[in-house]
histidine kinase (Paenibacillus dendrobii), 500 residues
Amino acid sequence: MGGWIQMGKIGIVERLPLKKQFILTFVWIMLLSVICSVITIGIGLFWLSRSTWIQPANTYENQLPEIAEYVRSQHSTIMNPESRADLEKRIPAEGIRYQVVDMDGKPIYGTLPGQQIQGREVLIDKLNKTVSADASLGFGGRFLKIVPVTTEEGDWEGAILFQYKLEVSGKSGSGFNWVNLACILIFVVSPFLYIAIFTYLFAAKFGRRMAKPVHELIEASQRIRDQDLDFTVSYKADNELGLLTESFENMRSALKSSLLREWKLEQERRDMMDAIAHDFRTPMTIIQGNVELLADVPDMKRDKAEAHLKVIEDNIQRVNRLIQDVQVASEKDMEYFPLRGVKVSLTDFLEDKEREIGYICGSHGAEYSFHFEDLSPSVGQTVFMDVQRVSQVLDNLFSNSFRYMPSPGGWLGVRVQRQDTTLQFEICDNGSGFRDEDIPHLFGKFYRGEKGQSGLGLYTAKILAEKHGGSIHANNRREGGACMVFTIRTDGPAPNHVDI
């Protein structure tokens, strides 16, 4: 499995920090709510003004001139209560109330209760005028228009008071309340309604923007849970979610690299164990064959029996060495190897190693050469090193050479050179040499070459050389065979020296 976890095209707003996205969303909600509220109120007012069932505020005021003309045409007969029926036919009862009064302002009849004018002088002062009766009510309040009543000769007999309101109302006369309520709903409720609508719409869109990376992260975590790390999270944004996805991607990449290393190491361990298992079979087969031979020939001559026992002993040592290699590789970090550096005589050490090389080559039917070159004789013959660890390096290199040199006809060359505080060992043989593609990996911990051998011995040699402040490398001889060269420092504890 593999691929990209795509999140689609990322817009400009989506790249902004979450705080800015919240602020921008709020601004858009309020701005659109205000614009839509203004448009709604304007349309509502326009519709109300054009409506046929809505009466303007001055509807009843405009009817008063016609009613006043009728009053004047009736002269003093209008003062008679018997004229009430004819008068009320011309006065809209739902919008205008009236009262017929004498010259002292005392009511004679009408729909307006109580005495409205207190005295003749007040009445005379307000004749033919429109005065405010109560400006605190409604939009325009109540108004009082006073029309004088005269005889046919023109003598003043009294007056008629007309009370009306300046406000919008329904034609039925009783529709003012619900019309007023409708206007209030339009003016007051619509802004909140638009805020609620746009909040829902923008919140849903904001939620979808947030949901995309969150869902992708959930999908990515599920794929990791299923041990699938071969994907890439592609969401990129300069905000908190972008940082979260970037951190998640970095974690996925690091986890993938770590698991790949772990899987590779596990595979290398299995391959190494397969190789060592093969190495185990060879000495165990030899041991078993010699034991069976000794058992089958109980009267074998002593010298032959001792030869067989020597073969068994050598192979038991090989098995023990393989066991030690496995223990070191599996139970401890191979970089552990502590050093016990001491001052030793370089001459004595090299004489001992030359004797050992002669014995080993003799047992393998191989020839050898040993040369020492001192380029700094004034330094003295005392050096500082861990004799056992340096011998362990040499033993690993010797073993590697003997494994691939011909027998008989093998040859091992050892050349030691000292310069100042550096000691260099060069071990060459006339074996099959190394394949070019194997040379860079020879000193790997679990490297296995074409012939199946484990690389633990050479890896151990590399670690010990480095702990002595030196290095090791390998190459092939022009004449055929291989060469191993390693150097150590002999002037005191190396940087990685551990004295225990």
Q: What stands out?
A: The chain is about 50% helix and 20% strand. Residues 240-296 form the longest helix (57 residues).
